[in-house]
Amino acid sequence: MAAYNEPEYFARAEKLGHIIVRDPPKFDLEAYIANYRGRTRFERLLLIGSNSTHLYFEALKAAVAEAKQGVDVQRYEAAVTALQEVTPNDPDAKPDIAWIEKTSRQVKAQTDHLELELKGYKNNLIKESIRMGYEDLGRHYHAIGELTPASKAFGKMREFCITHQNILVMSLHVIHVSIEQQNWHSVQSNVSKLRLQAAKYPETEFVAAKFSAAMGISYLAQGLFKEAASHFLDTHPRMISAKIDDLAGKDTYNEVLTPNDVAVYGGLCALASMTREELQRRVLENSSFRNYLGLEPHIRRAITAFVSSKYSTCLSILNSYKGDYLLDIYLRPHIQELYGQVRSKAIQQYFIPFSCVTLSALAKAFDTDVPSIEVELTIMIKHGSLDARIDLVDSLLLANTVDGRKKVHEDALMMAKEYERTAYLRILRMETLNAGLEVKSLKGQGYMSMSGLGAGDGPTNVGSEVFGSSGQGRSGLRNGGKFG
User: Fold this and answer.
1) Angle, in degrees to the nearest 10, between helices 56-69 and 73-86
2) What does the pLDDT average to over 362-388?
3) What's the predicted TM-score (pTM) here?
């Protein structure tokens, strides 16, 4: 549907501060969503339907259908409500009361059955059965959207795990639920515990890619882009060769993200947080991550352009995909900051070879006008990310150069003052010795006695470390001499 026929919903949402994507997407919705499975399919469809003026109808209809295939009644009601706000006359915009009532009864019956079954396992005291009972109950709670009970059920599996493989399965369940809850501390804690045991249990290697991806998402969600980039760049390429329909899930992680997402998340975080040298060494020359970049060639082109100092090309590539990234559940909250950091870095790198540059040249290089680039430069200078000043009279950006002659003079004065201070202390030491005020150590005691003072009134060898050993330097001022 063309943007000029867009529903009034989007205008209202924009007034409330929501970011509405009016650019046509570069992806096919059906092919895109087919790469995912599980609850993330619904989350992505609902986000796209609520924010894209081109895909809203198709996405929201698919979200309603996706919800009805599951047993989460709340998600179905949320999808129907969203569709109702956008296209109130659509048949699917009316809730299916019969389905809601039927599913609610089935959910309650299944919950009672699983809890009763688990109670029986506990009475039999068979650890493996109890572990499986908690797993079935956790899966059920997860499927109906009860994330807190699901997390508790999966957590209780731990004390009944017999093998390390059982612990891996339990931890993956907890991490998955924690990602949906946005409980990033739990994600990082569980992954860290398992990584500590990686050397002891070789089977951990088979899920290492999932751990790296989960850690990357947790840091990305917290706005820690360099840490997120490091984890995405370390993701094992095992995930790429996995089959989408691999229900065993040994290598796939498409209930959370796909290999394409790893390439995009890792590439953008690296661009925003790494220097050109790091991008060359850790991204472009990274043999493992190169496999992921092959899935998203435009990310590789953008990074290559940045490393080659072709900043306008890099920014142009990123801007052409900005609409798609605003429809991603993990990138959307951070895309403005990510793009801002990439642009700031590009301006910094562009300005390094120059002592001054005209604002018009900068505006042309970064595809904007002079007033906009002036505001952007002012913000960067205020934040300390650009060491320069703006000449508004001549419309120039001037580098803050260091006066080498002045710096040499300052260093020389500092050295002279330090020499003067040292000489003063040495002369004071010699005068102290000449006056017979030397502090002598008493054998076996930690404190010394001083002429005219009781024992313990002064610390050991006061000033000896500063002035040197006693008995030396008698060529100083004589007794009775004045020290000015």
Assistant:
1) 160
2) 85
3) 0.79
